[in-house]
């Protein structure tokens, strides 16, 4: 089974993140989705509940929009509190060992803005997630990114919807591969 940690601060108005999670639920009824912003609108994370969810699954998917070249604040808080000493690291902190973690993120800007010649590589922005996963002895599987999903990106709504469906299918196939 897989677990999706969904971290969109304005999920009710989301198009891409909402569509991605909805598509996956249709294809994978056993997928557990924890919408942490809905669960913890005051940012008071139930650490025990989150750790229990992590323990139930072999594959963890982080689904979120890129905010200012980073993860949304609630996901950072979630990491800070849930990946705790003697759970995720420390002499007895091996609870996440060998679990797999995959990042699926949406990016408002077009992909060409993240090419080497522009000095912005998504890979670089995800080093903290990668290193956190490795420190917790998890297998970091990398990321998939859906670019140009903001109306400001200048892409027609129909094209954004088509891209979102393609991303969902790609994510579904990756999940099947690692389950």
TrEMBL record:
GO molecular function: electron transfer activity; FMN binding; NAD(P)H dehydrogenase (quinone) activity
Protein name: NAD(P)H oxidoreductase YRKL / putative NADPH-quinone reductase (Modulator of drug activity B) / Flavodoxin 2
Flavodoxin-like fold domain location: 3-167
Keywords noted in UniProt: Oxidoreductase
Key word Oxidoreductase present: yes
Enzyme superclass (EC): oxidoreductase
Keyword Oxidoreductase belongs to the record: yes
Domain of life per record: Bacteria
Known EC number: 1.6.99.-
InterPro entries on file: Flavodoxin_fold (IPR003680), Flavoprotein-like_sf (IPR029039), KefG/KefF (IPR046980)
The species this protein was found in: Snodgrassella communis
Gene3D superfamilies documented for this protein: 3.40.50.360
